[in-house]
């Protein structure tokens, strides 16, 4: 007799009948297990939350006073008829894959993930599973990431070149994860680093958790470029082209995103420079992660879902697309 699936897909999100909980639900539910703090995965309005202890400070910063329990990576919790544990996803600090076991059958929800070690997030941990729910934000062969050190050299060289041209480098990135990763790659010997308030607030939370990041100066209404010669400005993309950005005089704009792999995207954003760096797995990373699960059944969410699922079927896997309200990496703040 066929068993009920460990997880189902509902209009509120991914649901575990045996444990009566949802994972990263997009509508209010009684109990939500949260993979990480980006707003497409962690939303307000749930009655109770469960997340890693490393994700908790950002969740409280973003969602306020919530009923939040925490677990450590690898700690097993019994919730109803399900055994649940959180494991490193490597996406941003505190991010997790969620392993759910019911009656000996194991399903893993990846959340967002990357396999490259960024030096800030706990590195991705491969998990064996019968079924794997994966993102596919960059699920095309064109998306292959260069080593992080190479991207760091590109950004720091651009910074120096901007100063030689009399321009202020204005670099756009998400407030959580990408901004702190870029901070860890910037060379403070070149000059001061100025930050948008949203980035500074999140960075302050992560510094409080012990992340070693260079000193930054938050931009205030009184900040002017002349007061900080040689500075690079790290901002959220929504700040570009606004009065907030115009205070820095002549600027050179750069975006740091996996989407910068596509020249058309860079042209549409009118960016002077695009730096290809992402907190999501590239094509090779997606394929390796899925192989390492040993899963025969793969559910593909947000991204190049149809194309990636079809590719997985050619590899002998039972792969199908699952619509969700997750958005992956975009060039605005909707998923920040």
Descriptive report:
With 336 residues, the protein is α/β, with parallel strands linked by helices. It has two domains: 177 residues, Metallo-beta-lactamase, Chain A (4-Layer Sandwich); 128 residues, Rossmann fold (3-Layer(aba) Sandwich). 22% of the residues lie in helices and 24% in strands. A seven-stranded mixed β-sheet has the order 7-8-9-10-11-18-19, with helices on one face. The chain has a six-stranded mixed β-sheet with strand order 1-2-3-4-5-6, with no helix packed on it. Strand 18, helix 8 and strand 19 form a beta-alpha-beta unit. The longest helix is centred in the middle third of the chain and has 17 residues.
Give the topology:
Blueprint (H helix, E strand, L loop, with lengths): L7 E2 L4 E3 L4 E3 L8 E2 L15 E4 L3 H8 L4 E4 L4 E4 L2 E7 L7 E7 L2 E5 L21 E6 L11 H17 L3 E5 L5 H8 L7 E3 L1 H11 L9 E2 L13 E4 L7 H4 L4 E6 L6 H6 L4 E3 L7 H11 L3 E7 L1 H10 L3 E4 L15
Parallel strand pairs: 3-4, 4-5, 5-6, 10-11, 11-18, 12-15, 12-16, 13-14, 13-15, 16-17, 18-19
Antiparallel strand pairs: 1-2, 2-3, 7-8, 8-9, 9-10
- Strand proportion: 15-25%
Any idea how many domains? 2
- SSE pattern: EEEEEHEEEEEEHEHEHEEHEHEHEHE
Number of helices: 8
Oligomeric category: single chain
What is the name of the CATH architecture of the largest domain? Answer: 4-Layer Sandwich
């Amino acid at each position: 007799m066929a068993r009920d699936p460990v997880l189902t897909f509902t209009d509120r999100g991914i649901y575990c009948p045996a444990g009566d909980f949802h994972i990263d639900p997009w509508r209010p539910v009684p109990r939500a297990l949260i993979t990480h703090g980006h707003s497409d995965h962690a939303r307000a309005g749930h009655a109770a939350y469960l997340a890693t202890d490393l994700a908790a400070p950002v969740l409280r910063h973003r969602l306020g006073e919530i009923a939040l329990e925490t677990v450590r990576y690898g700690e097993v919790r019994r919730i109803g008829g399900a055994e649940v544990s959180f494991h490193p996803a490597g996406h941003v600090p505190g991010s997790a894959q969620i392993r759910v076991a019911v009656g000996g059958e194991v399903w893993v929800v990846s959340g967002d993930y990357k396999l490259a070690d960024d030096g800030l997030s706990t590195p991705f941990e491969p998990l064996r599973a019968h079924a794997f729910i994966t993102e596919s934000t960059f699920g095309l062969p064109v998306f292959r990431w260069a080593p992080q050190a190479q991207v760091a050299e590109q950004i720091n060289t651009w910074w120096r070149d901007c100063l030689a041209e009399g321009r202020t480098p204005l670099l756009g990135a998400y407030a959580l994860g990408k901004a702190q990763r870029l901070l860890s790659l910037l060379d403070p010997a070149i000059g001061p680093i100025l930050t948008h308030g949203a980035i500074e607030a999140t960075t302050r939370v992560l510094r409080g958790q012990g992340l070693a990041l260079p000193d930054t100066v938050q931009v205030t209404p009184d900040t002017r470029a002349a007061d900080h010669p040689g500075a690079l400005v790290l901002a959220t993309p929504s700040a570009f082209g606004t009065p907030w950005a115009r205070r820095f005089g002549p600027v050179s704009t750069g975006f740091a995103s996996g989407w910068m792999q596509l020249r058309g995207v860079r042209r549409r954003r009118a960016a002077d420079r695009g730096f290809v760096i992402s907190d999501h797995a590239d094509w090779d990373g997606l394929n390796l992660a899925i192989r390492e699960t040993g899963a025969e059944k793969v559910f593909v969410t947000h991204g190049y879902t149809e194309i990636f699922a079809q590719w997985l079927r050619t590899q002998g896997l039972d792969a199908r697309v699952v619509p969700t309200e997750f958005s992956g990496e975009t060039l605005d703040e909707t998923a920040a």
